[in-house]
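User: Fold both of these, please.

Assistant: Here is the first one.
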Amino acid sequence: MKNVTDRVSNPFGLSPECDRFVPGYGDANADFHVIGDHPGVHGGLEHGVPFTGTAGGERLLNALVRAGLLAEAGDAPAVDSTYLSYLHMCEATGDRRGGDGAPTPSSYGDMERFFDAEVRAIAAHVLLPVGERATRHVLEQYTTQAHKTAIEMDELHGREIRGSGWLVLPIKDPGAWTDGDAEPEPNGGADADRAGDADRLVEALDTLQATDYRRESDLGRFIAGSEPYMVR
């Protein structure tokens, strides 16, 4: 089933109870769902688009362009089959703000319903959590792998993890990416031990897209007519 909407920003019309928030942005029928933490970490309050307004977000969006997940980066990225959103879309102010400046646990809990609604409405084939908190949440809520997966982002960066209906590919927080010193290879790859984090992500996404990552079944044989009926 496809979502029918021409809206790129906040296609599901979510309206959380906060003064400022960064809604989801992208293709409502995306194959790839990129999941950040909150605006205080990954930006977006100025333009209303996740991963904009910070150097780390710019690095991430540029890597997604190189990997073919975005047609264009910038303050209003050109998307095709990719969706960007946050675990906690509201700005962490007032009662939502903890002592460390991040949202409080209760505020994360309150915002989870909005995030979960987006995940299930989009039903992307691949979830790409960005940073430790998003990765931990996705592994705990959408896979059975959390109990046996150490959240070491250097190790998990660009690594495929099979979930319960989703394939998960964690991304190290782009604010902590390193450049590395490996020379790109002619096929676009690089020495894995010396490659920068952007190159590692691009190579992982290129490899993934060369496989049959869409976990679908054709149920058309069970219904009248000759048209395929693909479901996850």
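And the second sequence with its predicted structure:
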Amino acid sequence: MTTLTDTARLRPISSLPSPGGLPILGNVHQLDKDRAHLVLEEWSRQLGPLYRYRMLHLEIVVCALHDTTASLLRARPDRFRRTVRTAEIMEELGVSGVFSAEGDAWRAQRKTVMRALTPEVVHRFHPTLRAMTERLRRRWMTQLAAGAQPDVLRDLKAWTLDVTISLAMGQDINTLEHPDNPLQRDIEYVFATLGRRVVSALPYWRYVQLPQDREAVAAMARIRQAVTGFIAETRARLGDEPERCVRPSNLLEALLVLAEEPNSGVTDHLVVSEAITMVFAGEDTTSNSAAWLLDFAARDARVAAAITKEADAILGAETVLPDHHAFDRFTYLEAAIREAMRLKPVAAIMPLEAIEETDIEGVRIPKGTIIVLLLRRGAELAMRLPDWPQFRPERWLEEGAQQAVDDPGRAMFPFGGGPRFCPGRYLAMAEMKVALSMLFKNFDLSLDANAPPVKECFTFTVTPSALPVLLAARAVPA
């Protein structure tokens, strides 16, 4: 990305290739809401790494150039931002906070969130993480003993939600063992609504409220009511245990302590928004990444055996990882996680908006232009792997892979990049290592041959349509 003094040398957006389209509608009819990311990736294969498409009157630029993507991510939040449209949709639904904040507001909020997600905080949280993972193991063991197959995808989402809410708010809501808990259902419903609206050509809900839109409003109201109750409990706990004010144990405590400082600008509304944002940012992404890995491992006995061997060696006689000191020993499991995120990143695309006029590869980008970054397609082009579709964790373990100029990790942005790099990366990796090592230590994994093919669904993140895996309790040697 460069800025040319002689703006006459820049090409207009209209000079970029496009997939055609209809008068007035543009390409609206071609973007299936459930697979919009796949359509954009396919157009990139047909048109090249830089092209345009149109949604009604809106001309959108699409970029799958790795170096350009890295430059744009580094230029946030000063020159590029999350799109105004996305921010408005999130604000309407009440899912605001550091995820959608921009400029100085983002800088202030990010510091607080970063302090709540440091490795030290995650390490202190490990006993709770371990207990919740043991609860997941017991649930699966009980179901298998009764002759029932666990719904692994549902349980992973519930487990991740329990973990995220515990770390964010100090509450154990146990949606894992209480599937009738409305909070999980409400969160998933609002998340799905967010995904539908982001790819919708028209914001119809601002003029006509369909039943699904009224339900989304009601679901969000219930979520806020629950979080408001958590805040009241946390305030009472801080009053009873003032030592927590010195060393907060979760995000909610940290925010409420900060709110007491002069001129902090932290209101109850902001506290609620940040807590909800952390739940939305952490629940779906982590569980989906783990689910994609399990889908790959169930189809490759060699990979499953390697993860199992490593889990046996590290956990020993334990059913769940006893402490955080072994996180770095999961070399093969981490490689498998990276490989799953390479092929099935939960953030396959990322829309940005230009805050000021600039240019991309010699194309003039007016202020307010939306640029959709194809993160997965860009990685594919940059890595130039002859076996790109193959799930092969060993590629991350080959000698020199981490130091080489063409290190595969340098081409990927599974947690974003630049100043807005995801603050929850360490937590997400810790969660996946603990949960997946527990699964492979205690259970054999196989593919459900009778299940329909798994499809990628776009629900703001890339979600598997199902997880066709079967569990069987292992006869683990003492």
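The radius of gyration is 23 Å.
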